[in-house]
Amino acid sequence: MKPVLRPINIPTAEYEALQALARECLDGCRLVAADGTVLFRPDGSGHYNALWTRDFCYMVEGAGHLMEPAEVLAAIDYLLAGQREDGVIPDRRQADGTSVYMVGGTANPIGADVPTDNAQFVIKAVAAYVGLTGDRQAFLDRRDALYRAIDSVPVSEDLLVYVDPNRAHPSYGFTDCIAKTGNELFTTLLYWEALGTLAQLCARAEYHDEAHEWYERAEHAARRMGDFWDESEGMFYAASQDCHQIDLWGSLYAAVIRAASKTQTARVAEYFRQWWDECVYEGHVRHLRAGEYWQRLLIDVAPDTYQNGGYWATPSGWLIQTIGLEDNLAARRLVTTLLEEFTAYGVHEWISPQERRLPGYVASIAKVLGAVQPSRKLEPLSD
Q1: How far, in Å, CA of 115 to CA of 180, rounded?
Q2: What are 107-137's pLDDT values in tens digits?
Q3: Is the dihedral of CA 4, 9, 12, 17 positive or negative?
Q4: pLDDT tens digits for 11-48?
Q5: Strand pairing partners for 351?
Q6: What are the CA-CA distances from residue 105 to residues 55, 239, 330, 341 (Å)?
Q7: What is the CA radius of gyration of the chain?
Q8: How far is CA 250 from the centre of its chain?
């Protein structure tokens, strides 16, 4: 696998300001489970009052250097302890030890089955931990559980993640109210990334036969990735059946993890330059271009709110890295805009011109922090 797009350089003062905001959010999200494990909730307000697999992964990937390694590994093990016999990783685990596999409340789950992203996220979390600590044994001790997890993901013969339109259910958790069906882009990207990650972890531990197997599967998955590409728009579709719409987040993520070619990445960056005001507000990114809404929902989500038109900072780091390839100044301006928003109003899950929702949302700041690195040679941009 090619390395992901590199972080962009920003002034040290801006980096330290983002890091301070991340520390504040991380401090606010801590929750001690009944067994003494420190859980990292998605937000500091307690609205999401459990350890969510994908949010935790984003924290470790973007702000793991601000977390205690022992607590990170203990939280990973807390999630793995909830793994089902069929390999499924919980969507979240509560402080009392309850594992919740479906999205939504335990009494009223959303969709017909579990989301298709948690296996990939727990693999990515382990890889992020190993990258931070160099503790390869942590992977080796858990690799059987990770192998069972990735094998639980529903895929087509082409190894594209598949959601049956007749049994619609969540795919990527940041669109878990949306009924994307057929081959689904975002969790396919995560699946391809997770396969390559397993291959790299095995290779570094000199488990060469296993590494070869995972590389082979990753290459197989990559062969049909182009099915999601819309040449006329220069972007990727969200899904092959329901919600066959241009996916802003997925297109950016494909660029960042290098699932997109150099030409495709340049087209994605150009799309955002052309449609900036319809895609970005105060540095935050919509799922779909303004004026567009998801064609099929699992539950009602009002237009221009939450996952159906709200603007999120979680993908903003991917936008920074993507546009930073060709326009470093524009990427730096985006960082400055985000920092000004966070400083003035706080770090939220999503915002719109009318409202800001759920303060202290850790993924928002962690994914931005992970997209940048400090440089003492740079000064803040002047107005």
Answers
A1: 11
A2: 889 999 999 999 999 999 999 999 999 999 9
A3: negative
A4: 999 999 999 999 999 999 999 999 999 999 999 988 99
A5: 311, 356
A6: 17, 26, 41, 32
A7: 19
A8: 10
Task: Determine the angle formed by the axes of helices 248-256 and 185-204, rounding to 10 degrees.
Answer: 20
Q: How would you write the chain as a 3-class SS string?
A: CCCCCCCEEEEHHHHHHHHHHHHHHHHHHEEECCCCCEEECCECCCCCCCEEHHHHHHHHHHHHHHCCHHHHHHHHHHHHCCCCCCCCCCCEECCCCCEECCEECCCCEECCCCCCCHHHHHHHHHHHHHHHHCCHHHHHHHHHHHHHHHHCCCECCCCCEEECHHHCCCCCHHHCCECCCEEEHHHHHHHHHHHHHHHHHHHHCCCHHHHHHHHHHHHHHHHCHHHHEECCCCEEECECCCCCCECHHHHHHHHHCCCCCHHHHHHHHHHHHHCHHHHEECCEEECCCCCCCCCCECCCCCCCCHHHCCEECCCHHHHHHHHHCCCHHHHHHHHHHHHHHHHHHCCEEEECCCCEEEECEHHHHHHHHCCEEEECCCCCCCC
**Which residue is associated with the tokens 């057929």?**
182
Do the beta carbons of residue 322 and residue 8 sit within 8 Å? no
The span from the CA of 88 to the CA of 146, in Å, is 10
Give the tens place of pLDDT for each residue, 330-375.
999 999 999 999 999 999 999 999 999 999 999 999 999 999 999 9
Report the pLDDT averaged over residues 306-316. 98
Place of tokens 């470093």: 328
Q: If you search the block for the tokens 């994908």, which residue do you land on?
A: 54
d(CA 139, CA 192): 19
The pair of structure tokens assigned to 371 is 């997209």
- Core vs surface per residue 268-292: b (16+ CB within 10 A) or e: bbebbeebeeebbbbbbbbbbbeeb
The neighbouring-strand residues paired with 93 are 51, 99
Nearest-angstrom CA–CA distance, 171 and 164 = 11
Long-range contacts of 35-39 (CB under 8 A, 24+ apart): 35/97, 37/74, 37/75, 37/77, 37/78, 38/71, 38/74, 38/75, 39/75, 39/78, 39/93, 39/95
Characterize the bridge pairing of strands 30-32 and 103-104: unpaired
